[in-house]
């Protein structure tokens, strides 16, 4: 049941809101609530949001109000065409207990919201005695479905019903980034495939944008827009780097990285590198009978009649 106001009060409310309504607010960082709150009556009972509403009317919460998944403060604003913005995290002092803005406690919402236009007029001394406070009364959340129920109370505007509001699950985007191969010993460059995989536990939907930064310098050399849950990109680097991948889906962005290791060739590593005539690793001792010198050049050795090794000029 909702309290009906006479035409004089409603006219005051319309003029009052037009004068003191704030133009814009920052949205909450995460939009976890969908749907509407309802308070008032309809001049024409059609169930639509079309200007027939009186009193509070519909309060749109979608993409504006964040309810935490555990105990904590609710944040953000709801919007009503009739009364403007409703702040779910207003500053005190509060009219009575509980002495806090709207909070989640278990599966209940407790505390105070406030109609911003009335609060602004109150601060200016011309609200006509209205305070704009809205107190949560038995507002609860179904832990399984996120469906909300219960009412809030405004001394000026009556009951506000939460039955048409619902909390969405938090959007999560999990990715795994890998490189194959990821290391090269005694080489001057490395060709590898950089891959990102979206895990099945993700709750995001729609096309996925993959961006690949092979050498980790902040420039993305490859971009793909696809429905595929995995994507790879061919890369070539000439030194050790940390390759980066940025993945965006459903408004959520996640980054991942893979370490790429390149060890340049050096004399004595046992691998024949550029500029080396030979490389026998630890067997490089520089004198015959070793066939490779300590500087990785070839020794030319000869056997004399006494079977003693001697070096001869090549």
Can you give a write-up of this model?
The protein is mainly beta and 314 residues long. It has 3 domains: 7-167, no CATH class; 175-263, Immunoglobulin-like, CATH 2.60.40.10; 268-314, no CATH class. Helices cover 7% and strands 41% of the residues. The protein contains 2 helices and 23 strands. The chain has helices at 7-20, 116-124, and strands at residues 33-42, 53-60, 65-66, 72-73, 75-80, 84-87, 103-105, 108-110, 112-115, 133-141, 148-154, 158-161, 165-167, 175-180, 183-185, 190-198, 208-213, 222-226, 230-237, 241-249, 252-263, 301-303, 309-311. Strands 1, 2, 3, 4, 5, 6, 7, 8, 9, 10, 11, 12 and 13 form a 13-stranded antiparallel sheet that branches. A hairpin with a 2-residue loop joins strand 20 (241-249) and strand 21 (252-263). Helix 1 (7-20) packs across helix 2. The chain is rod-shaped. It starts with 6 loop residues before the first helix and ends with a strand. 32% of the residues are buried.
